[in-house]
Amino acid sequence: xxxxxxxxxxxxxxxxxxxxxxxxxxxxxxxxxxxxxxxxxxxxxxxxxxxxxxxxxxxxxxxxxxxxxxxxxxxxxxxxxxxxxxxxxxxxxxxxxxxxxxxxxxxxxxxxxxxxxxxx
Length: 120
Prior knowledge:
Elements: H1 5-9, E1 25-37, E2 40-51, E3 59-70, E4 75-85, E5 101-111
Antiparallel strand pairs: 1-2, 2-3, 3-4, 4-5
């Protein structure tokens, strides 16, 4: 038996009591990669969607940005910043009925273990 707790609450833009929603519109994705410096790379992705049936002029977007840094032969670091705007998610403003920009930011540190390659 499925747990219908979220479905009954109508979360994430899905009407209460439903488990999915269909939307017709235009979707586009743009990818970008660049080496900023010898030890710094950037990867970005932008997804955009316009729902023809509900305020087609309002474009929802999801943008992810990833910076990768090689500090030395043992350590690396990453910084990720995600930006989301969905006009149907109305959790902001004084009455919690306005759309708004949502962000997520992560910092990571990694240890690089050199490969043991036998010579000869």
